[in-house]
Amino acid sequence: MQLRSTKTLYSYWNDIRGARSAPDRRDIDPTRIRDALAYTFILESEDGLDFSFRLAGSHLCASYCRELKGRSFGALWPARDRDALDTLVRAVTEDHAIAVLTFEGRSERNETLAFETALFPLRHNGVTCSRIMGSMTALDTPYWLGIHPIVQQRITGLRLIWPDDASDSIATGFSIASDSDQTTRFGAALREPMPSMPSSLAGVSARRYAHLAVIDGGKAQ
Question: Residue 173: CA atoms inside 13 Å, Cβ hemisphere, count?
């Protein structure tokens, strides 16, 4: 994880999960990740396979020049990346890993821009197959971002960070808001102006596999 927004979300996710392998969706307090909200999204699925955007921050919607709520997450990716993406999603929902990927986005005018994306497991109604929290951030801020939409993208790097061996117990005995209340609160916060982004990304070594760079990760500490 190289970008501030990704690191912020990871640190918060790691903090609120406590001894669990993944936090509950209702544990999220958007005021604690204010600086990362523009880059944050929530995915939902009814079958644990096909995920769509339940919520999407202003930076994501600006990058594609459209509202992403209700749109398919998988449909953003080309056919040759679908198997890799499905594997990452299963690692997140079934094994509670964190998936980090980089991708190259291309505009309708053939302009290119690199992005960093991270996927974090979330519990919802006691299971981790129906919600995913994520972040998506451009590595630079060219003049055309938000004017010319990203219309094509391809994965350029993959990384999985595995959870530690902490207990998977779920805290009980306290009052929590309903998922719909949290969605309204979280969705409103996502529309706040986005902070400045770094202009470059430090290079890392990686093994090549076809057109993808596979980077070995570690454990979530």
Answer: 1
Q: Are 106 and 99 in contact (CB under 8 A)?
A: no
Neighbours of 129 (CB within 10 A): 20
Three-state DSSP at 46 gives coil
- Give the CA count within 13 Å in the CB-facing half-sphere of 190: 28
CA pair distance 48, 37, nearest whole angstrom: 25
pLDDT at 46 over 50: yes
CATH 3.40.50.800, domain 4-215, yes or no = no
| Nearest to 185, CA basis, from 68, 28, 76 | 28
Say whether 169 sits in a helix, a strand or coil: coil
Which residues, in sequence order, are CB contacts of 126 under 8 Å at separation 6+? Answer: 170
The predicted model scores a pTM of 0.76
Give me the phi and psi of 97, to 5 degrees please: -80, 165
Phi, psi (rounded to 5 degrees) for 183 = -60, -45
pLDDT digits (tens, 9 = 90+) for 109-133: 999 999 999 999 999 988 898 899 9
Give Cα 39 to chain centroid, integer Å.
8
Give start and end residues of each alpha helix (H) in 96-194: 179-190
